[in-house]
Design a protein that fits this description.
Layout (H helix, E strand, L loop, with lengths): L1 E12 L2 E12 L3 E5 L6 H9 L6 E6 L5 E4 L11 H6 L3 H19 L6 H17 L5 H11 L16 H15 L3 E5 L7 H13 L3 E5 L3 H7 L2 E6 L2 E6 L2 H39 L2 H16 L26 E12 L2 E12 L3 E5 L6 H8 L7 E6 L5 E4 L12 H8 L5 H10 L16 H14 L4 E5 L7 H13 L3 E5 L3 H7 L2 E6 L2 E5 L3 H25 L3 H46 L2 H4 L2 H33 L1
Helix pairs in contact: 3-4, 5-6, 9-10, 18-20
């Protein structure tokens, strides 16, 4: 059953058309992700559907009794209510009915022997049944549950609404919308202002939501979790892709390749026909000229395939550090940081190796940025040891963009920093970060926060540093810009250590995840999905162990001891793997040196000189002996790993 149908909607502002002839239908229960670059018209479409904005042309059809709820960005209310009372306004009908039932109870009590008692009792029965059907006995707990799910605490419930921050007010409006349960939810960036726990709660809630959900979001992991269709607005038109966001990326790429193929074939055929016409005319005979004119008429009628817009296809540029670091990039041991009498963290051990992409996770306020400042030497008031490996050159991106001169143009900002790079290469690198054509002459001061972040990131990667520290690098970036950054970092040949709440970004980039909590720091040798799987397995193991403990009488102390033993074993395995990697590099180096000896022994100046030949032969024998010992050590470590 179709709940919402849009037919040929067009909207313009003055001479600029925002969306043109957009049509789609949404079936009952479908969850839709609406994507497109900033300014594509996504919010405009939401406002038209919700009735907040007039369309220029087209029709909107709603199913019978279908209700629409719309969450805007940056909402503001001056309500005099506290947080909980404002949320409970969603249940005005239920509260009114509840008060009527209370009054009936008083009337019944006062009319124990009155003739009206029967009619009062019938009215009471009817209203209590209606109250039950309206979920009257749990509306208060439902409101509290949704507020808590979206990040509010019990202590927040008495806060005045007008004193809430903009982000808190947006969360309150989202809470009220979920409590009203409209048939169609239009959510514009609902994960803004939510921490990871609240986002995960919202994902679960929306997946179970019985109505339709249409969501605009830059959170690609969120889209992957909840939607089953993607609507993309690009060049004023809307294209429908079935599946979640990851499915959409694959299908869009396939569609772009097909469009490119059709365009090339069309252009080749046009060129072929023009070449034939030119050849026929060159003969200068009447018969050939007539044939040429005939072909020209056919060519004029031939369908011309428009050149596809490949704005979304990124240039691929490899950023290489000027110096390769040693295998061990950084090792920190027993780090402890205190503020007055408060300990932020203690006993932290962190190891990072060459070419690793490491994500640092943890709730807000746990000390992630403080840890970065300590590791970078910006904060020297700490306890513990930090050791950097050989040839390690770290550099830091911290979102403040203090490195940018607001008075310069984009190209001058980058070129002045790296004058040795020629203009062609500067332009190609700027294009990879979505600055093309005359855009490169824009002043830094005129750019959005996301655009300025892209410039800072480009300068960072051109710095030739081999160890990048990135603090929330995807903040303020739209999806297109995030993809540019991911592509650049994935081919980056140095080491990356980053803080991020962007789970899709973590998934695409990280090969190791560090999770900072009140209990210290934990390491997971994989991306975000792997980290979540490990947590789920640990939860299941804990529940299983608890069940077994209940049956066998195993104590909690014994369970904790076993869990510590498992963690220690995991740490040992990690160290073994790192040692094996180092030994494998040594083996490769030894084999190269042995090959060099073989090449030397083939040189006339060596084999014709007995002393030199003897020395090279002895060097080779010594290297082969070391190689054999190294292989034995490698085999022994592999045996230990398999045990």
């Amino acid at each position: 059953m179709i709940t919402l149908s849009i037919n040929n909607i067009t909207k313009s502002y003055g001479i600029e058309t925002i969306i043109k002839d957009i049509s789609f239908a949404i079936n009952e229960g479908e969850k839709i992700g609406l994507v497109g670059s900033n300014g594509a018209g996504k919010t405009t479409l939401f406002k038209i559907i919700s009735g907040k904005l007039e369309k220029d042309s087209g029709q909107i059809f709603l199913g019978k009794d279908i209700t629409i709820g719309y969450l805007e960005q940056n909402v503001k209310t001056e309500s005099e209510n506290n947080l909980l009372d404002e949320a409970l306004l969603c249940f005005e009908d239920v509260i009114k009915l509840e008060n009527e039932i209370r009054e009936l109870e008083h009337s019944i009590s006062a009319s124990a022997h009155d003739k009206k008692l029967d009619s009062l009792m019938n009215e009471y029965s009817r209203k209590t049944e209606l109250f039950t059907n309206m979920n009257g006995y749990s509306y208060n707990s439902e409101a509290r549950g949704i507020l808590k799910g979206l990040g509010f605490s019990e202590s927040d419930f008495e806060k005045s609404v007008k004193l809430l921050s903009g982000g808190e007010q947006t969360r309150l409006m989202l809470s009220k919308l979920l409590l009203k349960k409209p048939d169609v939810l239009l959510l514009d960036e609902p994960t803004n202002h939510l921490d990871t726990i609240a986002v995960e709660w919202l994902e679960t809630y929306l997946k179970q939501y019985k109505g339709n959900v249409v969501v605009i979001s830059h959170d690609r992991y969120f889209l992957d979790k909840i939607v089953d269709n993607i609507f993309e607005i690009h060049n004023k038109i809307l294209t429908h892709y079935s599946g979640n966001y990851s499915d959409y990326l694959e299908k869009r790429e396939t569609a772009l390749q097909l469009m490119e193929k059709e365009y090339r074939e069309n252009q080749d055929e046009i060129k072929r026909q023009k070449d034939i016409i030119t050849q026929l005319k060159a003969f200068g005979r009447e018969k050939q000229v007539k044939r040429a004119r005939s072909r020209e008429k056919l060519l004029d009628k031939m369908e011309v395939v428009d050149k596809p817009d490949f704005a979304k296809k990124k240039a691929s540029i490899t950023f290489s550090p000027s110096i390769t670091s040693g295998h061990e990039v950084m090792k920190a041991e027993s780090l402890c940081k205190t503020f007055d009498d408060r300990t932020l963290f203690s006993g932290l051990d962190v190891e990072i190796f060459r070419n690793e992409k490491v994500g640092l996770l943890g709730p807000n306020g746990i000390g992630k940025t403080t840890l970065f400042n300590i590791l970078l030497g910006k904060d020297k008031n700490y306890e513990g040891q930090i050791k950097y490996g050989t040839n390690v050159h770290p550099v830091y991106f911290d979102q403040t963009r203090k490195d940018l001169d607001q008075t310069k143009t984009i190209i001058d900002e980058v070129w002045n920093e790296y004058p040795s790079i020629n203009e062609t290469k500067i332009r190609s690198m700027l294009a990879a970060f979505l600055f093309t054509g005359d855009d490169i002459y824009k002043k830094i001061s005129s750019l959005s926060g996301g655009e300025q972040s892209r410039i800072s990131l480009l300068k960072l990667m051109l710095s030739k540093a081999n160890f990048l520290f990135l603090d929330e690098p995807t903040n303020h970036l739209d999806i297109e810009s995030k993809e540019v950054l991911e592509n650049a970092l994935n081919v980056y040949e140095g080491t990356v250590f980053f803080i991020s709440h962007d789970r899709y970004f973590i998934n695409k980039l990280a090969d190791k995840v560090l999770v900072l909590s009140e209990n210290g720091i934990r390491e997971f040798l994989g991306n975000y999905d792997y980290y979540q799987e490990k947590l789920q397995h640990e939860k299941e193991d804990k529940e299983r162990a608890q069940n077994e403990a209940d049956q066998t009488g195993t104590t909690k102390t014994q369970i904790k001891a076993q869990q510590k033993k498992d963690r220690d074993k995991e740490k040992e395995v990690r160290k073994l793997k790192n040692t094996i990697t180092q030994i494998e590099e040594t083996i490769t180096d030894l084999e190269s040196k042995i090959e060099e000896c073989d090449q030397k022994l083939c040189l006339e100046e060596i084999y014709s000189n007995p002393e030199m030949a003897k020395k090279v032969t002895e060097d080779k024998a010594n290297l082969e002996n070391i190689l054999a010992q190294t292989f034995e050590k490698w085999e022994a470590l592999h045996f230990m790993l398999e045990e």
